[in-house]
Design goal:
mainly alpha
Length: 206
């Protein structure tokens, strides 16, 4: 038997041993670190949709408020469509500029499901910069919470209508009560990376 033939089984055994040791180290890390992907919970598509539902409702209600506020104006459909587009682009912005820095990029452990989508858009980035990127890019979507109210108030002053009032109240309740409360108490509270997230800082103890 040649030397090459003798080294074949030895090399295969060595590789297998190294792989086994690496797996054991990962399991050990997962047991000691709740932020390790192997220790993180896994979310189904339905669970991810439910986590995103308040944001989706806010975007739809905001567009409806704009449509009603500019009723009779050529700007009505333009502003409503632009707001809906802003809502979609805002979510994609987070996936591009924040999610790649998350430990759960490319996994099903992201409560909102962004992790899997982000993996198709951009490569993984250094996880220790997640907090920095979160604080930098979250303000990009903050105007979504306020834009529909800007034309709604003058519209109500010019001509009070219960239809617009109901839409504004529904939007405000969803945007300023349901969405942040749901995120804090469910989606974010269940996120294994909440300890390093600026949004959840100090909220676990509250």
């Amino acid at each position: 038997m040649s030397t090459v033939e003798q080294r074949g089984p030895d090399l295969a055994a060595k590789v297998t041993t190294e792989q086994r040791n690496r797996m054991e180290e990962e399991r050990s890390d997962a047991q000691q670190n709740p932020c390790h992907p192997l220790a993180a919970p896994v979310y189904t598509g339905l669970q991810a949709f439910l986590h995103n539902l308040p944001y989706i409702l806010m975007t739809v209600l905001g567009a409806a408020v704009l449509l009603r506020s500019f009723r009779g104006s050529p700007w009505a459909h333009v502003t409503a469509a632009a707001y809906l587009l802003y809502g979609v682009v805002g979510a994609l912005w987070i996936m591009v500029f924040v999610c790649p820095f998350c430990r759960f990029w490319g996994t099903d452990s992201c409560p909102c499901g962004y992790g899997r989508i982000a993996a198709r858009i951009r490569n993984r980035q250094p996880g220790d910069r997640f907090g920095e990127k979160f604080k930098k890019h979250i303000p990009v979507i903050v105007p979504l919470w306020f834009l529909p109210l800007v034309p709604a108030v003058p519209a109500l002053v010019r001509g009070f209508t219960w239809g617009l009032v109901i839409l504004v109240v529904a939007f405000a309740v969803d945007a300023f009560v349901i969405l942040p409360r749901f995120s804090t108490r469910h989606g974010c509270r269940e996120c294994p990376q909440r300890g390093g997230c600026p949004w959840m800082k100090g909220k676990d103890a509250a």
